[in-house]
Amino acid sequence: MLLHQLPEDVLYHVLSYLDYRSLSRLSQVCRSIWSFVNRDTVWRRVAKEFLNTGIRRDGTDIYPHIPLKERVKIAQNWYDGVCKRAIPLRWKTKLLPWLQLDGDVLFLSQAADIRAYRLRQGRPQRNPFKIYSGHDGDVCHFVLTDSHLISGGSDGKILVHSRTTGTVMELSGHNQEVNCLDSKDGLIISGSRDRTARIWTLNSSCLRDTIPLHDRVWSVALNPTLSSFVTGTACCENFSPLRIWDVERLECVCNLGSEFRRGAGVLDIAFESPFQLFTCGYDTFIRLWDLRLSPRKCVMEWEEPHDSALYCIQTDGNHMIASGSSYYGVVRLWDKRQTKCLQFFQLSSDPVSSPVYCLRLSSAHLYAALATALYSLDFKQSPIYIR
C-alpha cells in the first residue's frame, strides 16, 4: 500500500511525528501527497510551536483565512528578525499617538482625531477613509469593540462613537486627562490623571461608579471574564501600583507585588487569559502574573537591557511578546520560553527622540507609533522558504 493510500486518520498520525522541514519535503513527492500535507490540520501542531502563527495557547486560531503553512514560513522571519522596515506615515508636530488594528484597517490617533486607514499588503493608504473627532484636546487612548470606538482625551471626556451609525455619545466625569480605557461586552473602565478609575456602560451616558485611587492612573484592563479589572498607577504613593478590583462589589481583591520602587508606574497591562496578566512600565521589566496562585504573584519577568522604561507590550497569545521602550525607539521581541531578548529593532537614531508609545501585531506585520511617525516592520518580505 502506498503512503497516500493509507486511511486519513493513520496518515495524520504518521505526519504528527514530522517537523516542518520534513513535512515540506514530503509535500514534493507527488500531487496527492502535496494536497494532503498542505492542509491546516497537518500544520496545526507545528504552528503552535512557532512565534505569531495565530494559534493561541488555548487552541483558537485568530488568522483562519491564512494557510498555516504560509504562517509557519513567516514565523521563521519573526524568529530570525528578517523584515523590511518602512515609515508609511509622518506628521510634523510631536504627539502621543495610539493604535488599534482591526483586520485590514489601522486606527491611529493624531492630536484630537482618530483616523482609520485601509491596509494594502500591510501598508496603510496615504489618506484615511474615516475620521473620528469630537475631543477638545488630544486623544490619549482609545479602544475598539465590534460596534463602537471609545476614546479618552486630555479634555477629560470619553466619547463613544458608533462604528455603524456614526452617532457619538459623550461620557463626562473625569476632570483631567483620561490616560487609559478598556471595554468589553458593554462595560467601560477608564483611568485618569485625576486619581480615579470610573465605570460606565454603553447603554447609558450616566456614570455607574467611581473608585478613588489616590494616585495617577496610567493603565487599566478588564479580565476576559468581566468579573474583575486591574489598575496600574504611577506608584507615587505608598500603595502597590497594581491592584485587582471586583467589578460588582468594587472592592480591591488584592495588590500585586510589594517590591515596586517609588515612581515605578505601570504603563501597560494585557490579559493573556483570565488567569495570566502581563505588565510593563517605568521599572524596565515585563512581568507575568499568575492569578491562580495564592498569593497571586509574578512567575516570570524579562528585563529591558538598557534600563529604559517600557511603554507598551503586545503578545501573540502563545509564545511571543513584543515591547516598545524609550531607548532609541527600540522594539524587542521576546520568546516566553527564554529569559533573554530574541530580536530587537532600533527605529530611531536619536536616543531621546521618542518612546514607542504603542505596538500592534498582525500575522506578518508589526506597527509602532512614535511621536512623529508610524513605523512598520514587514516580516513577509524576503521570506525564508521551507524547502
TrEMBL record:
Gene3D superfamilies: 1.20.1280.50, YVTN repeat-like/Quinoprotein amine dehydrogenase (2.130.10.10). Pfam families: F-box-like, WD40. It comes from the Eukaryota. This is F-box and WD repeat domain containing 4. GO terms for biological process: SCF-dependent proteasomal ubiquitin-dependent protein catabolic process. Residues 1-46 form the F-box domain. Coiled coil: none annotated. InterPro entries: F-box-like_dom_sf, F-box_dom, SCF_F-box/WD-repeat, WD40/YVTN_repeat-like_dom_sf, WD40_repeat_dom_sf, WD40_rpt. WD repeats lie at residues 171-210. The keyword Transmembrane does not apply. Keywords: WD repeat. One of its GO terms (cellular component) is SCF ubiquitin ligase complex.
